[in-house]
Give the backbone structure.
Amino acid sequence: MINETMLILGGKGKTGRHITERLEARGVPTRPASRSSAQRFDWYDESTWAPTVAGIDTAYMAPPVDPQGLEQAGRFIRQAAVDGLRRLVLLSGRGVGSPGREFAVYEKGLELENAVKDSGVDWTIVRPSWFMQNFSEDFFYDSVMAGELRASAGTGAEPWIDTEDIAEVMVAALLDPKHIGETYSLSGPRTLTLAEVASELTAATGRPIRYVELEPEEHVAELVGYGVPQEVADSLRDLLAVIRNHRSEYVSDGVRQVLGREPRDFTDWARSTAQAGAWSA
Ligand SMILES: NC(=O)c1ccc[n+]([C@@H]2O[C@H](COP(=O)([O-])OP(=O)(O)OC[C@H]3O[C@@H](n4cnc5c(N)ncnc54)[C@H](OP(=O)(O)O)[C@@H]3O)[C@@H](O)[C@H]2O)c1
């Protein structure tokens, strides 16, 4: 039994929430931290950093998605190591450091990985593909509800992954020192285009959903119109460009490497997520 409290940065998010639940189910105390958590933490308010890390050895970090936020996360880890943090499991992104990704969001993502490696903490880096939960909890949710997946992914495919699989990998990494110094790439078991995702979601929800292919700048303008900050919309455009350029059409075996089992399939996820009422409003 581990008695030390683990810090979960982004503890209410799509990955952090499931990590917190799993650790608590095993009796591991957690300290979820974010702007709305009891432990208030803000990437852009450095006065919140030291109290968040006080007394903590081990942390999970879900960093921001935009280049400026990734820089802040690098600053944070350097300071946290000075303040006593000894072990970090980092949520990165699949393809960070690979060719064909000459975008600020990937460059800053690699800089963050390097900042973690250089900070002196024992690290594990996990690089997942795009999340299935983007359709049920995040920026594609409204599109699903409106019956139109509007995005600039072209005809490219992505091996979408369930964040429950990611969480299980993260918990293994947080609890077992054999994962120190490892970098794992994770994905779901097969690639699907957004048109294929739309037909999976149509079958799961019983409501017609189609993919509407947008030009990248058209997509950015729509996202900003819905209130997404410009830098986040730009990052999404660049992340989608990798799908659009067919550079993400491969599966990665990190879930099998860490957990010894296959990741969850999209059809199964979509069916049970629909049954749980995610799109029943
Ligand atoms: N979505 C994907 O397909 C995908 C794929 C690969 C990698 N990733 C990476 O996953 C990361 C996001 O992780 P996630 O999806 O688990 O999180 P998420 O669902 O986007 O949730 C974000 C979390 O961060 C907190 N947060 C937001 N702004 C904050 C701020 N200024 N200061 C402190 N906390 C803040 C939020 O809580 P509060 O609102 O309470 O602050 C929330 O707990 C990003 O780095 C992204 O690049 C995403």
The first strand starts at residue 6 and ends at 9.
